[in-house]
Design a protein that fits this description.
Largest sheet: none
Number of strands: 0
Distance between the termini: 27 Å
Number of domains: 1
Structural class: mainly alpha
Helix content: 55-70%
Amino acid sequence: MHPDTHPAIWGGEACRAVVTGVAVVAVMFAICHLPRWFLALGHGVGLALANHLLGLTLMGITYGIVYAVTGNLWLVAFIHATMNSPPVLVAMSVPPELHFVVGVVEYATIIAVVYLATRVTKADGTVLAGFQRGAAF
């Protein structure tokens, strides 16, 4: 969906409801990942858990923003799937102390790309003037 069809995202009375909804669901998203933290990975309670929950909450906020801007749940599912399989997509090693920073950069990049993609196309999918190949600015 095009942002013009989502006036709540860009201001108006329903904006607070959208922001609240995204925040609540982001926290729920983080909490739903707790069983893996404790059971599958065997970690305990501590500063690492708080850091992990903060990262997951930011990830949930990213997914919420992507859905609010696009209205496309399949896009959110695709982004989530790529985040679950980074070793398959990109071979890189990040030191543990930089995981949070790298995550924030990833989330900001996702939001920026989705936002720009929805702003340079009209609701019918045509490219806006000025963004066409060979157009003069």
